Amino acid sequence: MTFFRPGPALLGSLAALVAAGPILAVAWLGVTSPWDDYLTHLASTRLAGYIANTLIVSATAMLLAGLIGTLAGWAIARLEFPGRGLLEWALALPLAVPAYVAAYGWLDLTQAAGPLQTPLRESGLAVLTSWMPVVRGPVGAGFVFAVVLYPYVYLIARQAFSEQHPDLQHAARTLGASNWQSAMRVTFPLVRPAVIAGLALVAMESIADFGAVAHLGAPTLTVGVVRAWAGAGSVADAARLAIVLAFFAYIAFALERQSRSRARYGQAQGQQRPTERHALSGWPAGLVSLACLLPILLGLVIPLARLGYLAVTEPVARGVVPALLNSLLVASITAVIAAALGLGAAYAIRSGTRLGAFSARLASLGYAAPGAVAAVGALVLFAGLQMALDGLWGGQFPILLSATAGALVFAYLSRFAAVAIAPSETALARVNARLDDAAMTLGASRRRIATEIHWPLIFTGIAIAALMVFVEVMKELPATMILRPFNTDTLAVIAHNYAADERLGQAALPSLILVLACLPAMILAARSQSSRRSV
Amino acid sequence: MNRLFAIALITVTAAACNQSSGDDNVVNIYSARHYDSDAYVYDAFTAETGIEVNLIEAGGDLLIERIRTDGERSPADVVITVDASRLQRAEEAGLFAQTDFSALADGVQAHVIDPDGYWAGFALRTRVIAYNRETVDPSEISSYLDLADPRWQGQICIRSSDNAYNQSLLASIIAHHGEQAGEAWARSVVANFARAPQGGDTDQIRAIGAGECDIAVVNHYYYLRLAHSGDPATVELTDRIGLIFPSGNTGTHVNISGVGIAANAPHGENAEAFVRFLFSPEAQRAYAEIANEFPAVTGAAYDNADLRAFDGFEADTLNISELGDNAETARRVFDRVGWP
Fold first, then answer.
1. Around Cβ A524, how many Cβ atoms within 10 Å?
2. Which InterPro entries match (chain B) (predicted)?
3. For A263-300, what is each residue's pLDDT tens digit?
4. DSSP string of B16-43?
5. How many CB pairs under 8 A join A and B?
6. Residues A346 and A419 occupy one common structural domain
7. Is the dihedral of CA B227, B229, B230, B234 positive or negative?
């Protein structure tokens, strides 16, 4: 574990600063490029609409995802009911569904020409179709993001719920609180930082998304960014708008930090006691099982089943197997490195140094930039590095950086640093600083504290970080498209190419395999959690 | 953990050094298209010439940015994208080498070749007007301008103005009739919307089937793909829908799938061979038969009865490079008239 030796805070901060490179390159582009009148034109026409849509989409997504994720996390951590073991990891699966895939599926299903409204109209019940909701517009987009992104909240919240010491509830009960009161005043407030950390990810991913909002007719600022890109000011205006987006993300983080600063949530966890789960039976048990099944239906089964149905009449997608191998390779490599990055950044934040917190926040902002812009940031960064290298080499350096798999992994890391940092940070934040003090008093080195005290306590958090990054990389599009080596497809690229050609049926198979490929990771994460509990 | 980290690093480095060094008999293609027809054409090209095809497929704007930032180091030989105004932007970014397309592309209609010689269209896509055969008399619509008629209020389905084909359609109207007339047209069409824009072109066609609208503006090959789907319900849907290839005013708006040779192409000769192949009878046939696009080469042979039935439409002969010249104006007009 020499990794921690030179001071985890400093290493973590530096790593985070490097990961922030592309977003800094975007900012540099925005500031140094010449200005024209595009932004004033935008301000006088569509900017307000873009911002309003951005707010509605992200607010809807956060509200629904927060609700689903928290309740599901609580039910899995605290209740015993039929199917719990299965649902524990299955609830995380919708995360593997790219938002645009869910959007295509849901719009196709619910629109007037879809299989829900058509039979009604044909049987003379056209009146009924007028009140049938169509998944479109900003609220529809918010719904789609909620059902595929709630696992962020769920994964982090479940962890927090199951680590809560049962004595807290016992104390509340002793003081005469009802079940409901103890839940509302002890259980839920204590997991708030975890829920908010998950919500920050939901907010950022939903404001940075392009495919789903463009398809559902809910143009957010990201759509504006992509459109500006095609415009006269080209990349510069896109970069400037992306900076506005990063500002939104900054607000999301500020909210999170504020909520955490109000209270310290550290708990003494010297000896982890298995959380007591309340066993349900009869109809309440069935009801909870069904309720936990619902988000999986909404985020995974229904949209994919719709696409799968369309697949029956269409030819099979090409090149799925090599794409699967490519996806697994880049996602695994990135996940491992990202977990290390997240851990380093979490220590940087914990150290309390300004540099630590600043660099970690900066690195996280990359997540809120539209993927395409983040990819361009990486390109610009590599172009600069290449020039420096060629200069040092005194000619053309033999390797073109932007054409390497390393560039791709770096672009992923910078884009998903937030995903890696958030779970590690929450995990580390729950480790009481007094444990460090106690160990220090006993003469333990910093390294021993990290390996023997922190590591066992935070391992699950790190595993979740790696899992989330794995899934994100499996789904990632713009950076993959533009930085991948020749003749290298991933599942997400194939699925997107078919969907963009409006061949939804053919997009179904790669999407489905993408989800299946994420299964082992999900099960592994669930296992690592339960095995640790029995230690 | 340390060991894992080391393994990951080694793997990444190994993968990084594994790139081909560019001395082989290859052609590096950056394409924004991903149709089955293209895969067929690449294979046929390799079979005929022995030149291997290296391929990167990504969005047109991303491709342009990649080649621009790679600069002189760019491995790109050939750039393929759809929509003329994107090609124009690539040209303005200095990505293309001037090419004598008259030598490479024998028989291609003059108006789909860039007058400066930087790029040319190898397949044509028309933006046409789909209508419900039961409710619309096609003789009442002979040009895009007719869509602005208030009689179609609440009856038109069309995609968002983010869509490049809509931008180019308006750009052509602006090129012919000026910005003011274009703005008035767009404003009136917005007033005729049946619903806020959503989904793709296929969704607009299906919306006619569901009775949400009577008229939709779509690219012709989406209609043909549905008609050829083999699914009885979908085929029945297309039977109820007709396509108008406007012949009045300035004719049918044509856009292209286009190609240019990269300014810093490391395999220039192979790039020329590939471009020549794109205009060969075999490739032209593939685009018409597999992708339902009209061949750019006049009189190219193909076997696609439904496409053939539409061929011979009155094409707008405006030079295709004018679309790019007016695209930015078109986007701003869309912004001003509130076309989402």
1. 15
2. Ferric-bd
3. 455 444 444 556 678 888 889 999 999 999 999 999 99
4. HHTS--S-SSEEEEEES---HHHHHHHH
5. 182
6. yes
7. negative
| Closest alpha carbon within chain B to A238 | B61
Quote the number of domains for chain A.
2
CATH number of B3-124+254-308: 3.40.190.10
pLDDT of A74 > 80? The answer is: yes
Residues of A in contact with B51 (CB under 8 A): none
**Domain(s) of CATH 3.40.190.10: residues in chain B:** 3-124+254-308, 126-252+323-337
Query: Are both A142 and A253 inside the same structural domain?
Result: yes
Q: Which of A55, A54, A341 is nearest to A210 (CA)?
A: A54
The verdict on A75 and A186 lying in the same domain is yes
DSSP string, A256-274: HHHHHHT----B--SSPPP
Q: Are residues A340 and A469 in the same domain?
A: yes
Q: What are the Cα distances from residue A449, in Å, to A424, A431, A436, A464, B3?
A: 16, 11, 7, 22, 20
- Same-domain pairing of A150 and A22: no
State both tokens at B77: 């030989």
CATH number at residue A345: 1.10.3720.10
> Is residue A498 included in any domain, yes or no?
no
- For residue B120, give the nearest of B260, B299, B272 by alpha carbon: B260
Tokens for A484, please give them: 């991948």
Counting beta carbons within 10 angstroms of the beta carbon of residue A176, is it exposed (0 to 12), middle (13 to 18) or buried (19 or more)?
exposed
Q: Which domain holds residue A172?
A: 48-97+136-265+281-311
**What would the two tokens of residue B233 be?**
């319900």
- Is the per-residue pLDDT at A1 higher than 50? no
CB B219 within 8 A of CB B126: yes
Contacts of A473 in chain B (CB under 8 A): none
Instruction: Find which of B69, B132, B163, B326 to mutate to test the A interface (most A CBs within 10 Å of its CB).
Output: B69
Q: Which residue has the tokens 């949400």?
A: B212
Is A497 part of the contact surface with chain B (CB cutoff 8 Å)? yes
A9 and A86 housed in the same domain = no
ipTM computed for the complex: 0.85
Q: What is the CA radius of gyration of chain A?
A: 24
Asked if residue A91 and residue A192 are part of one domain, the reply reads yes
**B65 and A CB contact within 8 Å:** yes
Terminus-to-terminus CA distance in chain B, angstroms?
Answer: 50
- Record: contact A3-B89, CB cut-off 8 A: no
> What is the mean pLDDT of the segment spanning B189-205?
95
Q: How far apart are CA A466 and CA A352, in angstroms?
A: 24
Residues of chain A positioned with their CB less than 8 A from the CB of B167: 230
Smallest CA-to-CA distance from A92 within A307, A299, A277 is with A299
Distance CA B27, CA B8 (A): 31
pLDDT in tens, A465-505: 898 899 989 988 888 888 888 888 899 888 888 888 888 88
Q: Which residues make beta-bridge pairs with A332?
A: none
Q: Mean pLDDT of all residues in chain B?
A: 91
- Residue A77 near chain B (CB below 8 Å): no
The residue to which tokens 């997540």 are assigned: A367
pLDDT tens track for B4-15: 445 554 444 444
A313 and B CB contact within 8 Å: yes
The answer to whether residues B126 and B245 touch, using CB atoms and an 8 Å cutoff, is: yes
Q: Which residue of B has its CA nearest to A100?
A: B199
- The residue whose two tokens read 């970690």 is A360
Q: What is the CATH number of domain B126-252+323-337?
A: 3.40.190.10
Give the mean pLDDT of chain A.
83
Q: Is the pLDDT of residue B140 over 90?
A: yes
- Same domain flag for A291 and A158: yes
> What mean pLDDT is predicted for residues B106-135?
95
Q: Render pLDDT for A359-380 as a digit per residue (tens, 0 to 9).
A: 887 888 778 777 777 888 888 8
